[in-house]
From TrEMBL:
<dbReference type="Pfam" id="PF02749">
    <property type="entry name" value="QRPTase_N"/>
</dbReference>
<keyword id="KW-0328">Glycosyltransferase</keyword>
<feature type="domain" description="Quinolinate phosphoribosyl transferase N-terminal">
    <location>
        <begin position="22"/>
        <end position="105"/>
    </location>
</feature>
<dbReference type="InterPro" id="IPR037128">
    <property type="entry name" value="Quinolinate_PRibosylTase_N_sf"/>
</dbReference>
<dbReference type="InterPro" id="IPR036068">
    <property type="entry name" value="Nicotinate_pribotase-like_C"/>
</dbReference>
<dbReference type="InterPro" id="IPR022412">
    <property type="entry name" value="Quinolinate_PRibosylTrfase_N"/>
</dbReference>
<protein>
    <recommendedName>
        <fullName>Putative pyrophosphorylase ModD</fullName>
    </recommendedName>
</protein>
<dbReference type="GO" id="GO:0016757">
    <property type="term" value="F:glycosyltransferase activity"/>
</dbReference>
<dbReference type="Pfam" id="PF01729">
    <property type="entry name" value="QRPTase_C"/>
</dbReference>
<dbReference type="InterPro" id="IPR002638">
    <property type="entry name" value="Quinolinate_PRibosylTrfase_C"/>
</dbReference>
<dbReference type="InterPro" id="IPR013785">
    <property type="entry name" value="Aldolase_TIM"/>
</dbReference>
<feature type="domain" description="Quinolinate phosphoribosyl transferase C-terminal">
    <location>
        <begin position="107"/>
        <end position="260"/>
    </location>
</feature>
<dbReference type="InterPro" id="IPR006242">
    <property type="entry name" value="ModD"/>
</dbReference>
<dbReference type="InterPro" id="IPR027277">
    <property type="entry name" value="NadC/ModD"/>
</dbReference>
<comment type="similarity">
    <text>Belongs to the NadC/ModD family.</text>
</comment>
<keyword id="KW-0808">Transferase</keyword>
């Protein structure tokens, strides 16, 4: 993968952490000493954000010797990034680069676990990433082998109950109206029961998003709508994790929508920084 953040964003990250120089490194008089730095996985993980970490080192004045690409699965103890340069440069990049890789790799690792739990099923992550971190979050999701469910409100048609609270009349009418206004878009409707799912599927929805419904409910919706031509895509959402992904796949679901990769512990990266 390539770097997803432009240099201006990389520089802004450095400026947040080192706005007026490194008081400790400069005060000790070691900023000009030759140094070497390595990043290693403390446990097995799927890497993400390594390109951005490498660019952080470069923008701080260091030289990257090696960086494994995002999407690479590494074992505990594996070194995946090495750099050298002046001690001041490496200290400047150290924590920002480490933290970025840890958070991004945590997302990628959790996404990969869900993908591997349900082979042949598309795992799509929602837009519930931390505000301001969309670029890295999307890259991490993709590094884990998942895709994005929707990148934002401007991209897709997803009708929530909160939208329907303002609508009058049967769903056939407003679904047909949406299709006229955006004929190239799929119409996704979120539902909270099997009955709602069947109702909106028969009204013409392309995708039925099941909010926190269990696998047996997903199976019931698939069976009740398989006579439609074409039948809707039935996509469980809310509460989908690596623990239940296989059960949804066994129920016949081919698309799983989840926010789980965004929430959890960061990956654990060991950094060694010392004299070259």
């Amino acid at each position: 993968m390539t770097t997803i953040l432009p240099d201006a964003a990389i520089d802004a990250l450095l400026a947040q952490d080192v706005p007026y120089g490194d008081l400790t490194t400069d005060g000790l008089g070691i900023a000009g000493r030759p140094a070497r730095m390595s990043f290693a996985a403390r446990a097995g993980m799927v890497l993400a954000g390594t390109e951005e970490a490498a660019r952080l080192v470069e923008r701080a004045g260091g030289r990257v010797l090696r960086a494994e690409p995002s999407g690479t699965a590494v074992a505990a103890g594996a070194v995946f990034l090495e750099a050298n340069g002046a001690a001041g440069s490496l200290h400047r990049a150290w924590k920002v680069a480490q933290t970025l890789v840890e958070y991004a790799s945590g997302i990628a690792t959790r996404a990969r676990r869900i993908v591997e739990a349900a082979p042949g099923v598309t795992v799509a992550c929602t837009r519930k990433n931390f505000p301001g971190a969309k670029d890295i979050s999307v890259k991490a999701v993709q590094a884990g082998g998942a895709v994005m469910h929707r990148l934002g409100l401007s991209e897709t048609l997803l009708v929530f109950p909160e939208h329907r609270a303002f609508l009058d009349g049967p769903p056939d009418g407003w679904i047909a109206d949406l299709r006229r206004k955006a004929p190239e878009k799929k119409i996704v409707v979120e539902v909270g029961s099997v009955e709602e799912a069947v109702l909106f599927a028969r009204a013409g929805a392309d995708v039925i998003q099941l909010e926190k419904l269990p696998p047996d409910a997903a199976r019931a919706v698939i069976e009740a709508t398989r006579d439609l031509a074409p039948p809707p895509v039935v996509a469980p959402a809310g509460g989908v994790t690596e623990a239940n992904a296989a059960a949804y796949a066994a129920a016949g679901c081919r698309l799983l929508v989840t926010s789980a990769p965004f929430f959890g512990q960061p990956a654990d990266v060991r950094v060694v920084l010392g004299p070259a």
